[in-house]
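ARCHIVE CARD
Drawer: 12
Card no.: 0347
Subject: one protein chain, sequence and derived structure
Cross-reference: see card 0346
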Amino acid sequence: MKSKYAGGRNIAMKVPPHQYDATVRFYRDVLGLKPLENHLPETGFEFGSCQLWIDRVVTLSQAEVWLEIVTDDVSSAAKQFSEAGVVRCDEIERLPEGFQGFWISNPASIVHIVAKPGY
């Protein structure tokens, strides 16, 4: 059975330290987006129907955007992606113990988390 997928509500922007404060100010002060307070001390903003998370990552030299894909059957999705030759990259960021999901990369090297909805 083929898994069904949908875009998730989370977008993560991974930003190097030298760009972090200015990036947060842009979304907060220039665009005036409403800050998210449901995962403090993480920095996030309401971004239409999505949540935009801005993470300071000391190992980056330029910003990256990471996206979320949701599926009701994570195990089936993992098998399907493996059979399709999709690169799995779980080492990119540690997920919480017992989390139902994993990391993949698309052909253009954009990272996606694949997880159950509402994790």
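Annotation on reverse: Residues 6-115 form a domain with the 2,3-Dihydroxybiphenyl 1,2-Dioxygenase; domain 1 fold (CATH 3.10.180.10). The chain has two helices and seven strands.
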